[in-house]
Amino acid sequence: MAIFAIAQTVYITKTGSKYHSDGCRYLSRSCIPINLSEAKFEGYDPCSVCDPPTYVYKRHVTHSKKRHEVYKRHHHKSVKKKF
After folding, report:
1. What residues contact residue 1 under an 8 Å CB cut-off, 6+ apart?
2. How far is CA 63 from CA 22, 59, 78, in A?
3. How far is CA 32 from CA 22, 36, 73, in A?
4. pLDDT of residue 53
5. Lower CB count within 10 Å: N or C terminus of the chain?
6. Which of 65, 8, 79, 4 is nearest to 40 (CA)?
7. CB of 3 within 8 A of CB of 60?
8. What is the 3-state secondary structure (H, E, C) of 5-73?
């Protein structure tokens, strides 16, 4: 099973320190799209007016057993330990 973060777009301004939801009144002068995870990583805080998302949603993806076995054969080669 693999876990992938679902890209969620929020918006920042040229001079602000907050990130916003689409349509927030503070986006009237500048509106720069950015991923939520990137905005949080760069230190932006959520706007208290528009209440944008604060959680990065993740999706679990399952692979069929056959696909997983093929993946294991090609990507998980055994490593011999040297003593």
Report:
1. 60, 61, 62, 63
2. 35, 13, 21
3. 10, 12, 43
4. 87
5. C
6. 8
7. yes
8. ECCCEEEECCCCCEEECCCCHHHCCCCEEEEHHHHHHCCCEECCCCCCCCCCCEEEECCCHHHHHHHHH
pLDDT of residue 55: 80
CA distance 34 to 40: 10
Give the pairing of strands 18-19 and 45-46: parallel
DSSP state of 2: E
Nearest CA-CA partner of 52 in 81, 26, 78: 26
Of 43, 40, 45, 20, nearest in space to 30 by CA: 20
